[in-house]
From TrEMBL:
Transferase listed as a keyword: no
Pfam families linked to this entry: 5_nucleotid_C (PF02872), Metallophos (PF00149)
Residue ranges of domain 5'-Nucleotidase C-terminal in the record: 269-423
Keywords, alphabetical: Hydrolase, Nucleotide-binding, Signal
GO molecular-function terms, A-Z: hydrolase activity; nucleotide binding
Protein name in the entry: Metallo-dependent phosphatase
Positions of the Calcineurin-like phosphoesterase domain: 26-176
InterPro entries hit by this protein: 5'-Nucleotdase_C, 5'-Nucleotdase_C_sf, 5_nucleotidase/apyrase, Calcineurin-like_PHP, Metallo-depent_PP-like
Family affiliation: Belongs to the 5'-nucleotidase family.
Organism, scientific name: Piromyces finnis
Amino acid sequence: MQGAPIGVISRGSYIIDIMNSLPYDLAVPGNHEFDYGMNQFYQLSKNLTCDYISCNFRNLITGKLVFEPYKIISYGNVKVAFIGICTPETITKSKPSSFMNNNGNYIYDFDLDSSGKKLYDSVQKAVDDSRKNGADYVIVLGHLGGVVDATGPWTSSMVVQNTKGIDAFIDGHSHEVIPSFTQKNIEGIDVPITQSGSRFAYIGQVTITTDGHIKTELIDPVDIKEKDQKVTKIIKEIKDSYETSINVYLTKTDFDFEAIDEKGMWIVRKNETNLTDLVADSILSESKKYGPVDISLCNAGSIRGSIKKGNITINDILTIIPFATYVSISEMSGQTILDALEMSASKYPENNGGLLHTSGLTYSVDPMINSTVQLDERNVFIGISGKRRVYNVLVNGEPIDPKRRYNIASNSYILYEHGDGYSFSDSKIIQSNFALQSDLFIEYLKKFDRIPEKYRFSQGRLTFEKSKDNNNRNEHKRSKNNTDLIMKFEGLDILSSNEMMEMNATKEFLFKVYRGNEPISEITHLSFEVIPESSNDTVAEFIFDEQSETLKLVAKKSGVAEIGITYMVNITLSSNSNIISETRKEGIYTIVVHHKISAHSEIISDANSIYDNKRLRLLIFMLFILTLFYNTI
């Protein structure tokens, strides 16, 4: 029910009005459907003219599912079952209090367990029941994610691997652009998984042809020339009703603020940016009006958009911070803060809406150390079992004291409600829910006639680099004679951490040596040892061409691979007879290889021919549009 200002202002009701103007047949709740509380969700679901379905959203008091697990729709003499799945992470990826009673006990559940078995069993039961009731095809509509960035055992890929009888999986939640990814089910049968991104990056279409084939494709909205006049009119009327009040000028900026890259991939969920610094500073600065504050924390998932250079309005702020989340101040120990930072760093290098951005505090993360964070059955932090990834934690320039008490300003979602799995166990409330996070941001921006130059770039508050005491084979070594030289494969440092490539594509990175910003030409000897690494070298891998001294990234077939490279280089310069050596590890990069925009997978079926194929294409086309409304983790 989110959707930038149009969702925030109406607490979801405008979204329902727009959906009701379209011929949707089905909807599946996403995690942010519950952001306005369960009472509002139930009211909105009653107002929605199509049916909600979910096979794993249940009331723990009655033991019954909240909605029907599936719906069978007939097309001619062929029956197609659509099964709904909510992400089990909804418990911590929405407001956990929405699923509790007044005593703080959970009264709703989404089959959240550490093994995934509860979810797999619920899905399999729905598949089996729908087949018994005559379904010729079973299509899953899931809000799970799971090819690149989703975590845990509840991904679409894992559900397919641990079930049978699913013919195709239309997914959401992780904002990935997946024309077609094939995953084998428990019987070794290929099942296509597809997802159309977010923010109308693409419109997905799945077609079951008359000969039993299933084809998935993504349609660029640019290619759709005609607008639906009825829907356009409704959206215009809604926007006209509130636009004057939110198009209020605040300040201006001479540079962009980044949350999402040009490919639509989240930056703030893996790295600090100038926008995360600005938002965190606004929380720290404005919270001091309500009480003493040392540090502010901001979870990456609370930031939902970028800012382009030019004028900034209230509308921009409600787009960036669309959630009605309040800010509070709590007192806690330095040790509790250190534990929270470990939770923040636990998923790196994966996308993480719980990644903490800071003001008044800086920290470093060693990605070479595996996280040892321990979680309970609801994915809430309970402790650390081994070595810590986080180091060099400074509070206002001084090392953090684990025993000292600090005042922290942050949104109540992570401070009190276990949002993103946080547990500030020894915290004491100083000021509770005194202002909306978006309001604090607005007030901070009003202080500036123009955004200060210091925000042009990120300020190094969060870094990912190997700590000095972590000695392993990936150690980055520099000779004393190499302190002023930079050696790198040109362009590799800007390769996206979630790179999308088409089959048979190749990217090349030429090795160069720089002194400062200038390339040098005084090399008299150069030798390499290159060790490529790939989780699936049949999908993609690095190949080193010794003759041209070029590193090549080769995409071979559709699928996903995590790849990296370690290289050892020895250089002799004409001005220095000593051999200069360096060892460096690059990566790990997640490479998603796909066909050009459309792809298909064949499903063999004994079903009779589909007489009403045109209507079926329209139905699934509309279901894909629906996933875009709910794709808002």
